Amino acid sequence: MHAPAIVHAIPDALRATQRLAWARDASGEPALELQRASMDAGFRSYWRTRGAGPSRIVMDSPPELEDVRPWLRVRDLLEAGGVRVPRVDARDVDAGFLLLEDLGGETCLQALDRLEADALMEAAFDQLLRLQAVAPPADLPAYDAPMLLRELALFDEWFLGRHLGVELDAAERAALDAANTMLVEAMLAQPQVLVHRDYMLRNLMPVASGVAVLDFQDAVRGPVAYDPVCLLRDAFHSWPEARVEGWLARYHARAVDAGIAVPPRERFLRDAALTGVQRHLKVMGIFARLHHRDGKSKYLADAPRFLGYLDAVLPQHPELAPLAALLDRHVRPRLAAPAVSG
Fold first, then answer.
1. pLDDT tens across 190-232, in order?
2. Strand partners of residue 192
3. 168: which of 172, 196, 270, 292 fits an S-S bond (Cβ 3.0–4.6 Å)?
4. Three-state DSSP class for residue 6
5. What whole-number distance in Å separates Cα of residue 101 and Cα of residue 56?
6. pTM, full prediction
7. C-alpha span between 241 and 226 (Å, rounded)
8. With contact defined as beta carbons under 8 Å apart, do 226 and 161 qualify?
9. Where do the H-state alpha helices sit in 28-169?
């Protein structure tokens, strides 16, 4: 989950005119129309074509707000590694427009009711293992200590401070800093692979061959447990803990068979748990920032989900007891637990 800062943008009406003119020229359909398909938490928007030819998707990524080049670079890297990603039929990187294949109107999250969960996870593991087998380019950002700590600071600044109005005392701040240090050290000690950073159901599309992968532009070189945790402790859907544990074990077995650098199973499961704690705290901070800074409030409804995830992990790690106490004191009274789906 990532959201850039707000800067000056081209007026919406002018951008809409530019978008439609480009789409008509790129598709060769002068009568083509565009209909909103979706919009993510950043500044990209997606538009479905309507006309005589097959439906396609226009990605609009205003260059002054969100450069499309990182998305294209990672897309090409993943495709070369056999990962199923959207096909690009036309591009204008300077204007920030792409013409993509249309993978359908539903993400895996939206289509959950008609998908069989175990088969879905197997398909997601298929693509994840291919992604993790791709060698990260030397200049790809590293999920290093400064980046991980910046992410953790979002929880303190935006969720505790801005959203809940909490001011930590010296002892609480020392406890949070110690927990953050422990989490970062655990993540840096893991084998490092290509990491999507938001590998979850909302960024996977059901296709004939299994699933296709979206929203990969923020890929980094980082801990091997990160993406499996994103998938199985999803930001927008909770599974029963027993299913999560079974799927984590299944992923680990498949990763070993695929030659992915994973540690022994018990160590991997510990790594996954601690990696999840870092991500859950970060996403709570991001959701609060989306609400207070960017005016995108719908994400906060999922904040209680992460408290449930933390409840499943923190009691198993006594060294994180001060973090659990902080959550009990400042967060739990304000958040209700989310529903869990089977």
1. 999 999 999 999 999 999 999 999 999 999 999 999 999 999 9
2. 223
3. 172
4. coil
5. 5
6. 0.90
7. 17
8. no
9. 69-80, 117-133, 145-154
